[in-house]
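Researcher: Sequence recovery benchmark, item below. Answer with residues only.
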């Protein structure tokens, strides 16, 4: 008998290979066992273009209402994608739009399986990365300076008082960017990281470059220090340590560490370092991601993109071996969270059972090509995209 998931989950469909996997996960693993109430939003590039990206905003607002969402990877169009899909314009990153509406923090955590040894020998436990999900270059304005001239920044306070600063006096062409962040967002980021570290009982590292950027990066450090100070009794009680480091020191230290910490990163650092940590733990296909808002709204997704190269093979009619594990864990994360919020333990245990089954299946040697090439021992053959899901479905 199907288990009923009481309240709605917001479902955001996506693009390319992950869109294909998405449909298979629902049909093979979820629909036979769960009665789901999905609020479906099609964030596929064609529909974002048709709705002038309104669908992304509607989906983010639905998360505010419903509290839990699961998102498929989506194309962030660049010039070549605009041409490829004949788009009206290069729409903004949907993840960027959703993050700024929710003012949330993204936490990424690798899925550890026994037979995939990490590339970094000292890593024994998962390294979670908390990526500040608002501002900096992701909410920037930028332009090209056409030639000689002055670039300035100007702040006009609500009172009318003006502060201006010279950015650079150009002797020839160049580029200029204006970035910002807000105290409110940095503070909720720091709070979210401290909460996550307390929840997982893991140490918290924060790295920035306050020696160079004394005001901008310094502001982040100041707020982190204050928030950690405010939670000192809780941190001490659980033995959770907070460490501030320069970002380059943090990068060096992480390569020698055992893992088991939350590494809080500014927006760009988190974007870059989460990909490094993910490949260090094996595959992007084993990296999960969740956006958490200060109000406790959750958007679960895989950390990887739409796996475009595999999609092109698929379109040519060639078999693919794309890892669906992170996408499955996006669904189980959302379903378990929904079950916790709804007070339906049978829903939570279905999600955990599916996760355990996925890990056990890989540990028994059934896995996609990305994992087969790094597993110890190497399996004699790898599973195709659909074969892997069919194996799970049969075992479920
Ligand atoms: P990607 O989709 O993450 O894939 C890059 C490469 O990583 C793949 O070609 C593949 O390597 C490997 N890979 C990633 N996920 C895999 C999986 N599940 N199973 C097996 N291999 C996997 O990044 P991309 O190709 O640079 O980007 C494609 C599109 O995704 C872009 O349009 C980008 O905007 C979008 N994107 C979306 C999100 C999101 O929605 N959160 C995040 C990142 C990127 P091999 O080719 O070696 O097999
Ligand atoms: Mg990235």
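Model:
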């Amino acid at each position: 008998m199907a288990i009923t998931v009481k309240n709605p989950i917001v479902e955001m469909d996506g693009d390319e290979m992950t869109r294909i996997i998405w449909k298979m996960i629902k049909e093979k693993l979820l629909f036979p066992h769960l009665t789901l109430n999905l609020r479906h939003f099609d964030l596929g590039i064609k529909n974002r273009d048709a709705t002038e990206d309104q669908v992304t905003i509607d989906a983010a607002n639905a998360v505010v209402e419903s509290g839990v969402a699961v998102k498929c990877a989506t194309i962030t169009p660049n010039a070549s994608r605009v041409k490829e899909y004949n788009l009206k314009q290069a729409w903004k990153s949907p993840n960027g739009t959703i993050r700024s509406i929710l003012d949330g923090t993204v936490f990424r955590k690798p899925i550890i399986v026994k037979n995939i040894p990490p590339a970094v020998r000292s890593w024994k436990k998962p390294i979670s990365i908390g990526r500040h999900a608002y501002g900096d270059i992701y909410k920037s304005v930028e332009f090209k300076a056409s030639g000689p001239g002055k670039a300035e920044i100007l702040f006009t306070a609500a009172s009318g008082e003006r502060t201006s600063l010279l950015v650079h006096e150009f002797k020839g062409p160049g580029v200029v960017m204006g970035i910002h962040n807000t105290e409110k967002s940095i503070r909720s980021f720091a709070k979210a990281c401290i909460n996550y570290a307390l929840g997982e009982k893991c140490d918290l590292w924060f790295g920035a470059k306050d020696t160079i950027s004394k005001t901008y990066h310094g502001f982040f450090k100041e707020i982190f220090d204050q928030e950690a100070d405010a939670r000192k009794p809780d941190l001490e009680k659980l033995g959770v340590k907070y460490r501030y480091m320069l970002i380059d020191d943090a990068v060096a230290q992480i390569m020698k560490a055992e893992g088991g910490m939350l590494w809080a990163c500014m927006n760009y650092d988190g974007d870059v370092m989460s990909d490094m940590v993910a490949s260090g733990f094996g595959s992007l296909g084993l990296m999960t991601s969740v956006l958490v808002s200060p109000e406790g709204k959750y958007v679960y997704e895989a950390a990887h993109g739409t796996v475009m190269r595999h999609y092109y093979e698929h379109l040519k009619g060639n078999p693919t071996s794309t890892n669906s594990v992170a996408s499955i864990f996006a669904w189980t994360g959302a379903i378990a969270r929904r079950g916790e919020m709804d007070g339906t333990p049978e829903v939570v245990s279905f999600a955990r059972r599916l996760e355990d089954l996925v890990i056990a299946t890989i540990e028994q040697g059934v896995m996609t090509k990305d994992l087969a090439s790094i597993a110890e021992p190497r399996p004699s053959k790898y599973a195709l995209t659909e074969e892997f899901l069919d194996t799970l479905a049969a075992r479920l």
